[in-house]
Amino acid sequence: MSETSPSQGRFAVLGNPIAHSISPQIHHSFAQQFEHEIDYQRLLVTQGQFESIAKSFFDHGGRGLNVTAPCKADAFALAKWPTQRAADAGAANLLWVDSTGDIHADNVDGLGLVRDIETNLEWPVRDSKILLLGAGGAMRGILGQLIEAGPASVHVANRTVANAQSLCELFGGRVTMSAGDLASLPDDGWDLVINGLSSGWSSTQPELPTIVPSSRALAYDMLYGKASTPFLLQMQDAGFSQSSDGLGMLVEQAADSYERWQGVRPDTRSVIQQFR
E strands of the chain, at which residues? Predict the structure, then answer.
């Protein structure tokens, strides 16, 4: 957290594509809570241009950047001072500069996910049996923080089993972990299923074997939209008693960014409801 609470500043979100991002609206909603005057823009990054665009932004007085796909690894590589969370993920979605001009990086996706699940949805992660669908950068970004919440076990299912096994090698010393493919999931009563498959961006969901829920099961899709996602519809049909998309995760990680830059944490529940 910064030592002062400035009421203005230039901020932006970088990525490609970027026109769909609602980060500017979220941050301006946060600013209204404190009567802050901020300038928060979307910046399109073409391939190979991330470093020059980010450095130019900071050189011209920018105070903080959010970073989305496909630039999170570039953001991590740019920073002189990454946090352990960013190092775990090999990626960053939050950048800022200190008084000397050095660039710092963090990855707050996992913080946003866990806070949305445990605080907003009031669903305890501790001692739960978790199934992760996907083993890409999104999963690597959340897994460290998810493990810190104390689950009993984590199984990673992915089309390419080697990628799932790689995640187990990275994080397996912290929790009981296993890996497998999407076609042959263990027939367990899963407490929490999190979807991070890249195919979720399309209108269809890959065929999955039957996913057996526990009595308190939550299905969580890291994507968000105006309508329920294909994955959540599948899980509801499978008998999951609770489900949620990733809007709350997006707002919570944005609040972590705002707190880092401005020194105050905004109320998130009202903003989540606003964008529902």
Answer: 8-15, 37-44, 64-67, 81-82, 94-97, 103-106, 129-133, 153-157, 176-180, 190-195, 213-221, 242-244
Catalytic residues, by residue number, are 72
Alpha helix positions (H), 150-246 = 161-171, 230-238
Question: Peptide bond preceding 266: is omega within 30 degrees of 0, i.e. cis?
Answer: no
The total domain count for the chain is 2
Q: What is the dihedral of CA 124, 254, 90, 201, to 10 degrees?
A: 80
* Omega before 230 within 30 of 0, i.e. cis: no
CB 213 within 8 A of CB 155: no
Match 């397996």 to its residue by tokens: 172
- The enclosing domain of 103 has a CATH number of 3.40.50.10860
pLDDT digit string, tens, across residues 48-85? 999 999 999 999 999 999 999 999 999 999 999 999 99
Q: For 98-103, what is the mean pLDDT?
A: 94
pTM over 0.90: yes
What's the first-to-final CA gap in the chain, in angstroms? 29
Residue 68 lies in a domain: yes
Q: How many residues does the chain have?
A: 276
Residue indicated by tokens 């939050």: 94
